[in-house]
């Protein structure tokens, strides 16, 4: 009898442990859904940190700062230290700042991307993309599954390009965010492959060049290249083109014509002209890191919400590019991966049969 009871006890313990683990798994699933549900808090807390210059204040302090000192340095008429403390706990959890043993807060690896005066800053990208007019269309994502108008068009009644054309502040923020993105990638691009990328080029046009960040830097690095920024009229009018030496500014529509040049720099579109084509784009299904995969998928859904026709064009144009690369007399395909962790470009081997979904961040086709 005692032996039978001893045998049953371990079995009962195992059953209880399994039931307990099942309950914990259910709880974890609920917590995950709640985190997704409140995911907007990440974006808004991030924007709050940038708007109030939290990282800049800590850097200026030159060492981890006490919460009371941080409160005094904020550019606000009054500060609720209670709210600041609660927000700081959230920022620390996000990995934006550290919490030291003495209660002070310092910078992390992520913090440098929030510093407004740094070349690597992502502050302009955050302020340009975390706005009411960019977030609003996500409320129409469910209906966009019907096809037809995109989420952006359903929400605003027009596509993104028409919207920013009629809203100068939105246009300014959008162009500054694109310029910020360019500033992150361009130095690495020119350092790692600039020597061969611009070889034999006397003229270069940046299609959809925005405020000219890329062309200004290329003109400085390669003064022998005639650099042209080509974009829609409202974009060109809102830039400080007079302050950019060595760069020509041209208004127009890429779907009608593109200024002639030896090479075309563009994002997410491929022209019909022969020559050197430099494409900077995000590519799906390359990385294994969950964070990178999620970032790429989010960007893909964001583009889908903005303009589905662009995605269709990209697939069609990629097929055309594949045919061009194979038929060219002296085809040269170089495929590069931008390692954001180490800020380096790595060349990888590439078979001739391509689709845009297979492309890496920087591809070059010469014929």
Automatic annotation (TrEMBL):
<keyword id="KW-0489">Methyltransferase</keyword>
<keyword id="KW-0949">S-adenosyl-L-methionine</keyword>
<feature type="domain" description="O-methyltransferase dimerisation">
    <location>
        <begin position="35"/>
        <end position="116"/>
    </location>
</feature>
<dbReference type="InterPro" id="IPR016461">
    <property type="entry name" value="COMT-like"/>
</dbReference>
<dbReference type="InterPro" id="IPR036388">
    <property type="entry name" value="WH-like_DNA-bd_sf"/>
</dbReference>
<dbReference type="InterPro" id="IPR029063">
    <property type="entry name" value="SAM-dependent_MTases_sf"/>
</dbReference>
<keyword id="KW-0808">Transferase</keyword>
<dbReference type="InterPro" id="IPR036390">
    <property type="entry name" value="WH_DNA-bd_sf"/>
</dbReference>
<dbReference type="GO" id="GO:0008757">
    <property type="term" value="F:S-adenosylmethionine-dependent methyltransferase activity"/>
</dbReference>
<dbReference type="Pfam" id="PF08100">
    <property type="entry name" value="Dimerisation"/>
</dbReference>
<dbReference type="InterPro" id="IPR001077">
    <property type="entry name" value="COMT_C"/>
</dbReference>
<dbReference type="GO" id="GO:0032259">
    <property type="term" value="P:methylation"/>
</dbReference>
<dbReference type="Pfam" id="PF00891">
    <property type="entry name" value="Methyltransf_2"/>
</dbReference>
<dbReference type="GO" id="GO:0046983">
    <property type="term" value="F:protein dimerization activity"/>
</dbReference>
<dbReference type="GO" id="GO:0008171">
    <property type="term" value="F:O-methyltransferase activity"/>
</dbReference>
<feature type="domain" description="O-methyltransferase C-terminal">
    <location>
        <begin position="138"/>
        <end position="267"/>
    </location>
</feature>
<dbReference type="InterPro" id="IPR012967">
    <property type="entry name" value="COMT_dimerisation"/>
</dbReference>
<protein>
    <submittedName>
        <fullName>3'-hydroxy-N-methyl-(S)-coclaurine 4'-O-methyltransferase-like</fullName>
    </submittedName>
</protein>
């Amino acid at each position: 009898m005692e032996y039978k009871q001893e045998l049953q006890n371990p079995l009962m313990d195992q059953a209880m442990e399994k039931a307990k683990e099942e309950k914990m798994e259910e709880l974890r699933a609920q917590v995950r859904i709640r985190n997704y549900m409140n995911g907007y808090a990440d974006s808004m807390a991030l924007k709050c940190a940038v708007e109030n210059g939290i990282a800049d204040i800590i850097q200026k302090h030159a060492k981890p700062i006490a919460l009371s000192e941080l409160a005094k340095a904020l550019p606000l008429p009054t500060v609720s230290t209670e709210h600041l403390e609660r927000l700081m706990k959230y920022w620390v959890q996000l990995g934006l700042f550290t919490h030291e043993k003495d209660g002070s807060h310092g910078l992390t690896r992520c913090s440098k991307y929030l510093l407004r005066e740094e070349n690597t800053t992502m502050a302009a990208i955050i302020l340009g993309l975390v706005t009411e007019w960019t977030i609003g269309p996500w409320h129409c994502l469910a209906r966009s599954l019907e096809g037809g108008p995109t989420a952006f068009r359903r929400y605003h009644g027009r596509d993104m390009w028409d919207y920013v054309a009629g809203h100068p502040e939105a246009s300014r923020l959008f162009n500054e965010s694109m310029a910020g993105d360019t500033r992150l990638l361009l130095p690495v691009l020119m350092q790692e492959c600039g020597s061969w990328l611009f070889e034999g080029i006397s003229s270069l046009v940046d299609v959809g060049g925005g405020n000219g960040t890329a062309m200004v830097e290329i003109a400085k690095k390669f003064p022998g290249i005639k650099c042209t920024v080509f974009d829609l009229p409202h974009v060109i009018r809102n830039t400080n083109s007079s302050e950019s030496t060595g760069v020509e500014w041209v208004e127009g529509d890429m779907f009608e014509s593109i200024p002639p040049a030896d090479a075309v720099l563009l994002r997410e579109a491929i022209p019909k002209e022969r020559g050197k084509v430099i494409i900077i784009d995000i590519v799906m299904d390359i990385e294994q890191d969950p964070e990178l995969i999620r970032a790429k998928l989010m960007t893909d859904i964001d583009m889908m919400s903005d303009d589905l026709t662009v995605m269709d064009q990209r697939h069609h144009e990629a097929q055309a590019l594949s045919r061009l690369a194979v038929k060219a007399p002296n085809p040269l395909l170089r495929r590069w991966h931008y390692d954001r962790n180490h800020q380096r470009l790595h060349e990888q081997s590439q078979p001739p049969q391509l689709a845009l979904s297979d492309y890496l961040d920087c591809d070059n086709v010469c014929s």
